[in-house]
Amino acid sequence: MTEMLATARFIKEIGRGKDGARSLVREDARLLYQAMLDGRVSDLELGAILLAMRVKGESVEEIAGFLDAAEDSLQKLQAPAAAFAPVVIPSYNGSRHMANLTPLLALLLAREGVPVLMHGVTHDPQRITSAEIFAELGLPAAADVAQAEQAMARRQPVFMPIQVLAPKMERLLAMRRILGVRNSTHTLVKIMQPFTGPALRLTSYTHPEYFEMLTRYFSDAAPHARGDAFLMRGTEGETVANARRAQQIDWFHAGQCQMLVAKQSVAEELPDLPSERDAAATARWTEAVMRGDKPVPAAIAEQVAHCLAVAAAIRQRGG
After folding, report:
1. Same domain for 102 and 15?
2. Which entry of 26, 29, 89, 105 is 20 to 30 Å from 292 by CA?
């Protein structure tokens, strides 16, 4: 019989409200999140924990501990031999107001020989997901690790649904449908690293407090052996550069932070973008760009160039 974890001592610390709550140390956060992943926390306690963290906000130590537990639960992938370290692209938001160009980013990187893993949700009733665009492009989602590794070996970008890559985390993501609000897992899936060796993670944030917290995490708490990370404000939550106005991109490596791209104003000449945002129209436009019939938006081309340079550097360091 599964031994449940008594969580009252944790809830007592984190459940005192935004001003009165105290943060958990990294090891306690790891212990708690591991029990949450394993289903060793009662529904009542789980709801209390998720809502308490939502009100309080995660500390760097808590995110670090949660991620330690989360990465132990992931399916692990081996990158193929290549001149580049793999690039990890989370895609959990999709697009609501503009075309989702995250699949274009993945295709451009893979064409240069970069092993690319995109992971995320397959459907969202309010948004156009990367998985739907991948399907329109004739790139089905990977059903397991073996399929993902074979596709990367063929220099194809891979999409792995979160329920395949990390089913225990998917269960916690699904709590949003019950509670009505996001929880810590929505942050964790955007910064996790599923490869056995070093990789470049493309990560994003939507609120300023997360920029501050993630900057401290990647500077002070992220294991350097796991590789490097790019951090940027999301394009509707996605980690692809905004084709109309490039965001600031910060590069974190070995505890150091370097700005790669400065925040830019609206482009003087608007790029030629899909006329519609649905998956089929976006896929046809993406194919036209890959054939060279349409130009790559300048901001995305710049993002690709930085990814190539850093992924090559990680590999040269022995990744």
Report:
1. no
2. 89
Length of the chain: 319
pLDDT in tens, 274-283: 988 999 999 9
Q: Is residue 133 part of a domain?
A: yes
Same domain, 148 and 265: yes
209/262 Cα distance (integer angstroms): 19
Which pLDDT value is given to residue 278? 95
Indicate if the pLDDT at residue 268 is higher than 70: no
Q: Report yes or no on 228 lying in a domain.
A: yes
Q: What is the pLDDT of residues 137-184, one digit of tens each?
A: 999 999 999 999 999 999 999 999 999 999 999 999 999 999 999 999
CA-to-CA separations, 89 to 20, 95, 169, 200, 307, in angstroms, rounded = 36, 15, 17, 9, 11
CATH of the domain at 21: 1.20.970.10
Tens of pLDDT along 59-88? Answer: 999 999 999 999 999 999 999 999 999 999
Q: Is residue 38's pLDDT more than 60?
A: yes
Distance between CA atoms of 166 and 83, rounded to whole angstroms?
28
Domain at 254, CATH number: 3.40.1030.10
**Mean pLDDT, the chain, as a whole number?**
94
Whole-number Cα distances in Å, 240 to 30, 35, 46, 91, 106: 30, 33, 33, 10, 9
Read off the pLDDT band of 18 (50, 70, 90). Answer: confident
| Alpha carbons 208 and 76: distance in angstroms, whole number | 31
Burial of 281 (0-12, 13-18, 19+ CB in 10 A): middle
Put residue 279 in one of left, alpha, beta given phi > 0 → left and psi -120 to 50 → alpha: alpha
- Domain shared by 227 and 143, yes or no: yes
- Determine, yes or no, domain membership for 107: yes
